[in-house]
Every structure is written in structure tokens, then in C-alpha cells.
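tool_call: predict_structure(chain=1)
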Amino acid sequence: MHLQNSEENQTVALNWRMSVAPMMDWTDRHCRYLHRLLTRHTLLYTEMVTTGALLHGDVPRHLRFNAEEHPLALQLGGSEPADLARAAQLGEQWGYDEINLNCGCPSERVQRGAFGACLMNEAPLVAEGVKAMRDAVQIPVTVKHRIGIDKSESYDFVRDFIGTVAEAGCEVFIVHARNAWLKGLSPKENREVPPLRYDVVAQLKRDFPQLTIAINGGFKESAAVAEQLEQVDGVMIGREAYHNPWWLASWDAEFYGATPSLLTREAVEEQMVEYMEREAQEHGTHWYSVARHMLGLRHGLAGARRWRQVWSDHRLKGLPAREVMAIARAPRAEELNAKA
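tool_result:
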């Protein structure tokens, strides 16, 4: 089994100021590779991986990542402390920089597994799981959660949840500023229907100044992020980072004080094609599986629609990725039909 260099991993300094949210079916290693090309400092998260998948499934398939992705956190889904501890150990052995426990996903499938957002109703169990993981690994153990369950808007509920889990040694909480409605809403509706209450997260930071509190939910522009960073320690961006990845290219300068990037979209596309070629050679990965994550790269630009259509055209699957890039950059749409 191939493991990442854990000694090298120990040198990674984590900073939760900016992060990209774990998103099922989206933030796989190909997506994260793209995001890392755009921002050096932002903390990246895996899709949620269940403890069962790691303890009884194909570990390399779930945990393999590119060394370039650091700093990188593994998000786990589970509730049994012993299973969480073993899964966290696997994450550390593979070279992840952080283990994050999902206490925010509201899907019925996750609820049937007795984890995700429903764990907020069992704060002592979450604390037990956090302690088990902290005892098992040397890297940070963090928790991502909602501000409440169903339609109750009691601040005491989320305050007491954090207080209980913090007593087990958790020092970092990433708070999705919406309630999770466990019945009657789809996961998509759960990201849109329950109202955003940023004030609750700001109050949590005031009540727990010694903890790192990051906020998640609904951010689409830098001004709103900067406003939040005046009140909390970090901002996690979800779907906007996926649909409009070029936004990430400005984060290092805007939020970390780095020199503004001279990167161009064309250079990123070229590096992604090189990555596609390497993935095909080393792992047999088809470029189409990688390209789907960069379809928003030219979001808002003239010609973006046709560029996106080329990279997502199944008729071109038989061509090498470099030829598809040439077609996508060609000025005339007729060239697409000529190659198809």
C-alpha cells in the first residue's frame, strides 16, 4: 500500500482563514488539483468518506491524493468512536493534514447511518468520537456542523454542542450558518431553504474566543468574505468555488497578503491537460473524468459556453486531451463538428 510521506506532512502549517468545502461527487482529487493550481494557501477538503468505506472497502481508491494538494483535510462520516479512531489513523498514515468529522450533512442516507447532522442531537457521542480520534492521531481533529436541527432556532443548542465537543479537545469548528432540516427537505433544499444566520456564528466566536471558528454558507464574492473575517477566524466556500473556480486565483493576494498572481486561465488549462496526460499514464484515468471539474474556469467570459461545450462533449472522448484543448480554443465552432 502506498502511503504519503507522513514526516513531510508534519511540517504543514494549517490555516483555516480560507477553505473549500467538502462536496460529495465534486471535491475529488482531480477537482482539488485544479483548486491548488489556483491558490497555494487555501485549505482543501475531501469529499466525505465514511468509516465503513475505509474499514471495509478500497482504501487507496478513497484516500489517494496528489502531493500538490497540501494543505489537505480528510472529512469522515461516522459515529462509532473506535471506527472513527481507526479511520483517522488511516488518514494520518496516508498523509492528510487534518481529520474533520461531518456533523452537518442532512441527507436521509447519512441519517440512516446515524451520522451527519443528526449527530448534533448527540453531543456527548460526538465528544467521545473526537477524543478517540485525538488519542489516535497527532494531526488536528475538527468538526463541521450546522447551527441547529429542524426549525428550532435555539442558540443554546449550538452553543452547548460546541461547549461539549470542545471539552473533548476539539479546537476548530466550521459552522454552516443554516439549520439542517432532517425531514421534508432534500440535501439541495437544505442548502437553500433554511435561512442563513451569520449572526449566530459571530456570537459563537464571541462566546468561545479561544476556539477557531470558521463560517460556511452562501458566500459568492470577496467583499462578503472580508466582512466575515472581521468577526470570525475563517470562511469556507462551497458551491461557488466549484462553479466559479477562477475566483480562487485572487484569494492568496486578497486574504493571505501574498503577491498577486500572474496566472492566466490559459496557463491553468494547459497545466490541467498535463495533469490529465499524467493521470492517464499512471492510473488509466480518462481525461473526461478530470475535465468536468474545470468547466467553470471561463465563467463569465465571452465564448465560455462553447469552450465548456467542447470539454464536456462525449463525442470527443476518443481524442487526446491536448487535441480537445485545441478545439476548445479554436475560434470556429465548425471545427468541433469536423473532429467529432
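agent: Confidence is low (pLDDT under 50) at residues 1-11. Proceeding to next step.
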